[in-house]
Amino acid sequence: MNGIPLPGAIGEHARDILAGRVSPVAARDAATVVILRDGPPGLEVYMIRRKASMAFAAGAYVFPGGAVDPRDADHAVAWAGPPAAEWGATFGADESTARALVCAAVRETFEESGVLLAGPDAGSVVADTTGPGWEDDRLALIAKSLSFAEFLNRRGLVLRADLLRPWAHWITPEIESRRFDTRFFLAALPPGQRTRDVGGEADEVAWVRPAEAVERAHEGEIFLMPPTFHTLGELAEYGSVAEALATGRTIEAIMPAAVEVDGELRLLVPDMDYRMPGGRP
Questions:
Q1: How many other C-beta atoms are found inside a 10 Å radius of the C-beta of residue 101?
Q2: pLDDT for 152-198, tens place per residue?
Q3: Are residues 62 and 48 in contact, defined by beta-carbon separation less than 8 angstroms?
Q4: Count of alpha carbons within 13 angstroms of residue 163, beta-carbon side
Q5: Which of 110, 129, 215, 261 is the most buried (most CB within 10 A)?
Q6: Nudix hydrolase domain location, by residue (predicted)?
Q7: pLDDT band at residue 273, thresholds of 50, 70 and 90?
Q8: Which positions ≥6 away from 136 have C-beta within 8 Å?
Q9: What is the tens place of the pLDDT at every residue in 25-46?
Q10: How would DSSP label each residue in the chain?
């Protein structure tokens, strides 16, 4: 039987959930952005490795992203591109939630990579975010002493929702103690901007080819969570940023589920040959 084994305390907690002895925690809305660029070997994605001390996905290579801040739904955020209602229809969310998800996607991308999907107007994008003032604002956003709307308004910028593309929707399994209802976006690295090691939750950053990352995960060299693994496997089919961004997507929520067969608990991830670190099935 395929799937991820759930031994020990994780398995016991899963049994409690399945038996109804414990109620699942609510999943928090979150957004993740896969930043793309055309490198010498082809399509590359930007990834960060979460510190081993992190409570969630410790040591995993992930894309920039995080939970929605309630202030992300603020209508004061200057906006260009598809309206929130259109994003809501795509992701199966109400308009307010959709607005918050798109804002969280752009905010978290800036916080975790230094890349900002915003510009002075609907037809331009910031060319450089590496100066000291930008770093002060990034740290203030992380500390939540500055809201995203305040940040954009102070700098006279407009969020460029048109630079994002919807890609996927993953919900953390009910057996987990930390759960996220995450929408995945794609975005090209804006001309003139560059990612940088911004620290915080990450201890390593890298640009990698999707197929290479999948292979390294199979070999046990790196740890990828199932949604990241699945997304990289899909992107490995594309040769350029333009090809990936032009792909039409029908977004359906995916939530891995725990099942027990012959006394063994496993987490089943739909339509995916996922292996744990070290190549174990």
A1: 26
A2: 999 999 999 999 999 999 999 998 888 999 999 999 999 999 887 66
A3: yes
A4: 29
A5: 110
A6: 26-230
A7: low
A8: none
A9: 999 999 999 999 999 989 999 9
A10: --SEE--HHHHHHHHHHHHTSSPPPPPEEEEEEEEEEEETTEEEEEEEEEPTT-SSSTT-EE-SEEEPPGGGG-TTS-EESS-HHHHHHHHT--HHHHHHHHHHHHHHHHHHHS---EESSTT-------SHHHHHHHHHHHHTSS-HHHHHHHHT-EEEGGGEEEEEEEE--TT-SS-EEEEEEEEEPPTT-------TTEEEEEEE-HHHHHHHHHTTSS---HHHHHHHHHHTT-SSHHHHHT------EE--EEEEETTEEEEE-TT----BTTTB-
Tokens of 246: 């032009």
Length of the chain (residues): 281
Q: Tokens at residue 58, please?
A: 């410790």
Q: What whole-number distance in Å separates Cα of residue 208 and Cα of residue 216? A: 11
What residue has token string 């608990």?
265
Inter-residue contact 63 to 228 (CB < 8 Å): yes
Confidence of residue 2 (pLDDT cuts 50, 70, 90): low
- Exposure of 279 by Cβ count < 10 A (0-12 exposed, 13-18 middle, 19+ buried)? exposed
What are 46's two structure tokens?
Answer: 């930007």
